[in-house]
Automatic annotation (TrEMBL), chain A:
Residues 83-309 form the ABC transmembrane type-1 domain. The keyword Transmembrane applies. Belongs to the binding-protein-dependent transport system permease family. The chain crosses the membrane at residues 23-45, 87-109, 121-141, 172-193, 288-310. InterPro entries: ABC_transporter_permease (IPR051393), MetI-like (IPR000515), MetI-like_sf (IPR035906). CDD domains: TM_PBP2 (cd06261). It holds the Pfam family BPD_transp_1. It comes from Motilibacter peucedani. GO terms for biological process: transmembrane transport. It is found in: Cell membrane. This is Multiple sugar transport system permease protein. Its main location: membrane.
TrEMBL record, chain B:
This is Multiple sugar transport system substrate-binding protein. InterPro entries: SBP. It comes from the Bacteria. It comes from Motilibacter peucedani. Keywords: Signal, Sugar transport, Transport. One of its GO terms (biological process) is maltodextrin transmembrane transport. Belongs to the bacterial solute-binding protein 1 family. It holds the Pfam family SBP_bac_1.
Length: 321, 448
């Protein structure tokens, strides 16, 4: 109320200045507003709208209400396996990537000698293009004649059917993700090098051993970086597509050649992910409405995960942040 | 920190929502009568684009020779062709408005999808050109190029499937003739298989459905199975032959060492369309494959000592031996084509010029799609190729029905078959009923 009263009392000159200020702010904001509107809000609204339409991208769309939603959730055979796989990858792959990335970061920052060599060794795989890296992995892990299983055989150990056994396909993809951990390693290295030496010294003087120093000094300091790694990891994993589809294609032996239709998910739907469904429904089956439903589910899941992790107090972001 | 992280998370989430669904609403027309002239002004130079799926060097040589013959006969029309194009790319290209003028596809299953407005109806053009489709083309091929009365494509060479067998391996195993029945196939496959503790040094036959052309549809034609009933509903659970077939295949898988062991061996195979193909490389003694393999074996300079025969039939249908599955390459005109008269001229030439068809068929070892081509004295007399000509002409040879969403019904059945062969399905009858429902729902979803 007080604000209203004040604005009523201001002089016309001041009002003009304020309007000018507002316009200036809007002018500076306009590129962002334009981008958000065109590249986020409009597509999001379109996605919601098309999820209620039957549209094969060639004949005019028709309104079908909730039919696409009902089809995806209750009738479409691929949806729940893809949902389970995506959640599995989000939980297992993201957790392991963060733990492994942090572990490698700790290793290379604490190494007295050879740290440069290790940094290079761990970072180089990240530079390999995903398609090439996946094909190389699929050959290395080939259950019949791959180098890994040949070695395991010589050691008289089990020889898993990595990308051909449904129980091993996702662990195989996780191994691939851990191999390309270079990006997280660099981020964690930077964060670890930023932790104040004085705090470590003080903790040591108080008698804290290495594990306690990590628990009470390192972890609280790098917590925002862990949160960053987890949140971006979840969002990236929700878009997981290329590696899963390439591994499935190479292992299934089905070449994407004319007359041969490769259905993602080999073996037995174990590598099927929600982004693959978006592509498959939208651009192979031309069922735009159902593809939009899956895209919206993905969006809602990503937002829900992020909100949960960032909740003050009980999420990764602590009270004091 | 928190706010910037929230912004970051939101920004990173954006692509998820934008993945697929920002298509415009440009309305198309269902395949109706195209309002185009059927003749081209010979004085005006025209360039048309042509997308096809051939990719192997000898195939590209053959299609380019056909295009050159057309251009020689039609000096004002230039054809710009692009090979190795899949059906997905064709449909995406047409939908985006950047499709070619003329398209060719190897997948007759997709005729239903093509006829749903992507390709123009060719009936008026055939009529205007005085072509009687029922006498010009092989009758079964005319059937698989139309959907719900719309002739949106024409046949350009056919593909028949048969059994390739390694004569040297057969002789070594003391087998004198190729198997004619499913019982003989199993017996021969076992005789020709040499198992090791971890795999095989030689496999008689790879029965898994992931083995290239072992798609259920290519085997099930040996029973004359009805996929969809007259009302378009899936009829797999109610057809006892489907159950019989799956049980036979599973028994063969188990007899040869089980799905896991076979799958491990299959993972060592090279690509289907390469010299590392396991039949060409001598890793398997028998394989179901199309007639094109005859040309591929030559082109790849494979040393495999082989012969061809029809695919064996179920024991109770032994008198129908000689039958098989037939599909084929189809040609149509994109609804987005702006050069439809020239596109029709090219389509007409591709599908009706006998000499060109025979030359093309001889080079890539395909079955001509016209009675005139089949009767031509110039058609290859290669006995291995003749097997497929006979399969194509056998009255019991069948194809798979067109459906509105392409081969989705086959894909859903195939996924179920993968689960069954690996032992994941215990109740076959209940599983087939579930597949029927999935197929019907998928078809209803496509229909809109």
């Amino acid at each position: 109320m007080a604000t209203l009263d004040l604005s009523a009392a201001v002089s016309p000159g001041l009002r003009r200045r304020r309007r000018k200020q507002r316009l200036t702010i809007l002018a500076f904001l306009s590129p962002w507003l334009l981008g958000t509107g065109l590249l986020f809000l409009y597509p999001l609204a379109s996605t919601v709208y098309f999820s209620f339409e039957h549209y094969d991208q060639i004949n005019p769309p028709t309104w079908v209400g909730l039919r696409n939603w009902s089809y995806v959730f209750t009738e479409y055979a691929g949806f729940w396996p893809a949902m389970r796989n995506t959640l599995w990858l989000v939980v297992v792959m993201v957790s392991l990537r963060v733990v492994f990335g942090l572990g490698i970061g700790l290793l290379v920052t604490n190494l007295k000698t050879g740290s440069k060599l290790f940094r290079t060794v761990f970072y180089l795989p990240f530079l390999a293009p995903p398609v090439a890296a996946t094909i190389a992995f699929a050959f290395l892990l080939n259950p019949g004649n791959g180098a890994v299983n040949t070695l395991l055989g010589h050691l008289h150990l089990g020889q898993p059917g990595w990308f051909t056994d449904e129980h091993w396909a996702k662990p195989g993809l996780t191994a691939l993700a851990l191999w390309g951990i270079g990006d997280l390693m660099v981020i964690f290295m930077a964060a670890l090098l930023d932790v104040s030496r004085e705090q470590y010294e003080a903790a040591s003087l108080d008698g804290a051993h290495a594990l306690q120093r990590f628990r009470y000094v390192t972890l609280p300091t790098i917590r925002p970086i862990i949160l960053f790694a987890v949140v971006t990891g979840i969002v990236q994993t929700m878009q997981y597509y290329t590696q899963a589809i390439i591994a499935g294609k190479v292992a299934s032996g089905v070449v994407d050649s004319p007359g041969t239709s490769f259905e993602p998910g080999y073996p037995h739907g174990s590598t099927l992910t929600l982004p693959q469904l978006v592509y498959s429904l939208g651009f192979q089956h031309f069922d735009t409405g159902s593809a939009c439903v899956v895209a919206l589910v993905l969006f809602a899941l990503a937002m829900a995960f992020t909100a949960l992790l960032m909740r003050r107090g009980s999420g990764l972001l602590g009270e004091e942040d | 920190m928190k706010r910037s992280l929230a912004t970051l998370a939101l920004a990173a989430s954006i692509p998820l929502a934008l993945s697929a669904c920002t298509g415009g609403t440009s309305g198309g027309t269902s395949a109706g009568s195209p309002s185009v002239a059927t003749s081209v002004d010979a004085a005006k130079p025209v360039t048309i684009t042509f997308w096809h799926g051939w990719s192997q060097p000898h195939e590209l040589k053959a299609i380019n020779a056909t295009i050159a013959s057309f251009e020689k006969a039609h000096p004002n029309i230039t054809v710009k062709s692009t090979g190795n194009i899949t059906d997905d790319k064709i449909l995406q290209g047409i939908r985006s408005g950047n499709g070619p003028d003329v398209v060719s596809s190897f997948t007759t299953d997709n005729v239903g999808a093509f006829c749903n407005g992507a390709l123009v109806n060719l009936d008026p053009l055939l009529k205007a050109s005085g072509i009687d489709k029922d006498t010009t083309y092989v009758k079964t091929m005319v059937q698989y190029t139309s959907f719900k009365g719309v002739q949106c494509a024409l046949p350009l060479l056919g593909d028949a499937y048969g059994l390739y067998y390694n004569k040297a391996m057969f002789a070594a195993a003391g087998i004198t003739a190729p198997p004619k029945t499913f019982s003989e196939l199993k017996a021969d496959a076992l005789k020709l298989t040499k198992q090791t503790s971890t795999g095989y040094s030689q496999l008689g036959f790879m029965p898994l459905f992931h083995m290239y052309e072992n798609a259920p549809a290519h085997w099930m034609s040996q029973y004359g199975i009805t996929w969809l009933d007259s009302s378009g509903k899936s009829a797999l659970a109610s057809d006892p032959k489907v159950t019989e077939f799956l049980k036979y295949q599973k028994d063969l898988v188990d007899s040869l060492g089980g799905a896991a062991k076979l799958e491990k061996y299959r993972a060592t195979f090279g690509e289907e369309f390469s010299a590392q193909n396991p039949f060409e490389a001598g890793k398997v003694a028998m394989a179901i494959d199309g007639e094109w393999r005859v040309a591929s074996i030559k082109a790849d300079a494979s040393k495999v000592d082989y012969a061809t025969a029809p695919v064996p039939v179920p024991d109770e249908l032994a008198d129908t031996y000689g039958r098989g599955y037939i599909g084929g390459t189809i040609v149509g005109i994109s609804k987005t084509s702006k050069q439809q008269a020239a596109a029709w001229e090219f389509t007409k030439f591709l599908t009706t010029d006998t000499q060109s068809l025979v030359n093309f068929a001889n080079t890539i070892n395909n079955v001509p799609s016209t009675p005139a081509g089949l009767a031509s004295p110039d058609l290859s007399k290669d006995p291995e190729f003749q097997t497929f000509i006979k399969v194509a002409g056998n009255p019991n040879t069948t194809t798979t029905p067109a459906s509105p969403n392409g081969g989705e019904y086959q894909v859903l059945f195939q996924n179920f078959a993968y689960d069954y062969e690996s032992g994941k399905v215990s109740d076959l009858a209940a599983g087939l009923e579930k597949v029927d429902k999935q197929i019907d729902k998928a078809n209803a979803q496509t229909a809109g």
